């Protein structure tokens, strides 16, 4: 797709009615891809995920590899009604012995207004 490290990805469109050189395929006309989510949305999501990671280190008071198998999926939370988001987080964090209300309140505040990502852009 991209020819060099600094080039942007492009989509090739077939042109109708124009004759191309024989060695070039008929789909050489280039067009830019559009992205459904802008950089600001993606950066905000990344910032939230990094904040979650840091807070889990504090809550469990251990290194990353020692944190229990715990997956906080922002998109799953966004699909839930506001009342269920808190109970879902409390359920996920039930193994944590420290007070978790500040973390839950902070996360719910940070995800307000965040858009759910489509399945193709998620991990």
TrEMBL record:
Q: Is Phosphoprotein one of the keywords?
A: yes
Q: Name it.
A: Protein phosphatase 1 regulatory subunit 14B
Q: Does the keyword Phosphoprotein belong to this entry?
A: yes
Which family does the record claim for this protein?
A: Belongs to the PP1 inhibitor family.
- UniProt KW keywords: Phosphoprotein, Protein phosphatase inhibitor
* Region named Disordered: 1-26
Q: Tell me which GO cellular component terms the UniProt record holds.
A: cytoplasm
Q: Which Pfam families match?
A: PP1_inhibitor (PF05361)
- Organism, by scientific name, is Conger conger
Recall the GO molecular function terms of this protein's record.
protein serine/threonine phosphatase inhibitor activity
Which domain of life, per UniProt?
Answer: Eukaryota
Gene Ontology biological-process annotations: innate immune response
InterPro entries cross-referenced by the UniProt entry: CPI-17, CPI-17_sf
């Amino acid at each position: 797709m991209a020819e060099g490290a600094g080039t942007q990805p492009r989509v090739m469109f077939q042109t109708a009615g124009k004759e191309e050189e024989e060695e070039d395929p008929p789909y050489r006309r280039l067009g830019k891809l559009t992205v459904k989510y802008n950089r600001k949305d993606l950066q905000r999501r990344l910032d939230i995920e990094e904040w979650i990671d840091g807070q889990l280190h504090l809550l469990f008071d251990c290194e990353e590899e020692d944190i229990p198998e715990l997956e906080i999926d922002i998109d799953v939370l966004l699909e839930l009604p506001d009342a269920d988001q808190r109970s879902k987080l409390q359920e996920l964090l039930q193994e944590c012995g420290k007070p978790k209300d500040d973390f839950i309140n902070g996360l719910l505040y940070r995800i307000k207004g965040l858009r759910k990502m489509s399945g193709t852009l998620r991990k």
